[in-house]
Amino acid sequence: MTQILGHEAVLASLRQAAAQQRLAHAYLFAGPDGVGKRLVAGWFAQLLNCTAAEALRPCGQCVACEKTARRIHPDLFWLEAAEAPTVKIEQVRAIIERLGLRPYEGHQAVAIIHPAEALTEDAANALLKTLEEPRGEAVVILVTTDAGRCLPTLVSRCRLVRFGALAASLIARRLVETCAAPEAAARELARLAEGSLGRALALAQSGALARCRASVEQWRNTAILLDDRQALREALLHLIWWTREQLVRRAQGGDDPAPLGVLLEELLALDEAAERYVNPRLVTALVHTRLQASGVFNLLPVTQP
Fold it and tell me: Are residues 20 and 139 in the same domain?
């Protein structure tokens, strides 16, 4: 299983609960996208069924750990709405039926449902009945980016585990290790990713950093005049990323970040306007006006490492 990045307090808490046999019947892993919630869910499933000595769990090497990592353990049930927009009641009922049986090989039957907000109301209510009458040898892990989008009564039956954004330094180090990214580029991508390793990896693999710089260069040269709303929002996103990056650098360097802070708020508002179907050409013109008024391109060069 891929090495987990960060979340030491979460791992320690889950490990302690397992060691003291104080497991909840259901957990809700909530936090930003791309920070490792599903990875920790898989790690937790390994921990619960690992056959190594307690101090070594999860060892990652025993048969149970290997099966869990490959998602073929008979007591592990993954339900992911990757190809469909919702998780339907029939899918949940199938898992509930399996959870009603004693574990076949391991200590615990573990069901992981992602994303929890994809559960239809009927599916969530069916799962709720199971959580209201829990069985001691079954653990349900719900994974979501927003607990507020889940059925409140379902949330109330779960032990909430919050995941925060990852430190940019951790993300940058992982990019250097896994993508052979130059350190300067890795640091920049890590900051652009705003605490999400998944987003950072996607940016690194897609060449987004180069596209971002090229887009910002176009904004500086007033060469952008966009009629397409999607293209405008992508170009605006690049500009917002770059502005946020320069704001952080100025603050860290002891310079006044206030002008960039004002510009960033204006750009975010214009992005919302573009999303609300305001005329793309009008939004483009307003962006150029704000850029010229801020003098942002006189503060820092576009390609500053």
Answer: yes
Task: Verify that 153 and 260 share a domain, yes or no.
Answer: no
Query: For tokens 């502005």, what's the residue?
Result: 243
- Whether 10 and 161 have beta carbons less than 8 Å apart is answered as yes
Asked whether 1 and 39 are in contact (CB, 8 A), the reply is yes
Please list the helix, strand and coil fractions of the chain in percent, rounded to the nearest 5, in that order. 55, 10, 35
Predicted structure pTM score: 0.73
Q: H or E segment at 288?
A: helix 280-294
Residue where a domain stops, chosen among 130, 162, 194? 162
Answer whether residue 260 is part of any domain. yes
In a domain, 187, yes or no: no
CATH code assigned at 142: 3.40.50.300
Last residue of a domain, one of 102, 131, 162: 162
Structural domain of 250 = 207-298
pLDDT tens, the chain, 305 aa long: 568 999 999 999 999 999 998 999 999 999 999 999 999 999 999 999 999 999 899 999 999 999 999 999 999 999 988 766 888 899 999 999 888 888 899 899 999 999 999 998 899 999 998 888 877 689 999 999 999 999 999 999 999 999 999 998 999 999 888 877 778 778 878 877 888 998 888 888 777 777 777 888 888 877 666 777 778 888 888 888 788 877 877 787 777 778 788 888 888 888 888 877 778 888 888 888 888 888 777 755 555 43
> Number of structural domains, the chain?
2
CA–CA separation, 219 and 67 (whole Å): 51
Cα 176 versus chain centre, distance: 20
Structure tokens at 215: 């887009």
CA torsion sign, 19 to 24 to 26 to 31?
negative
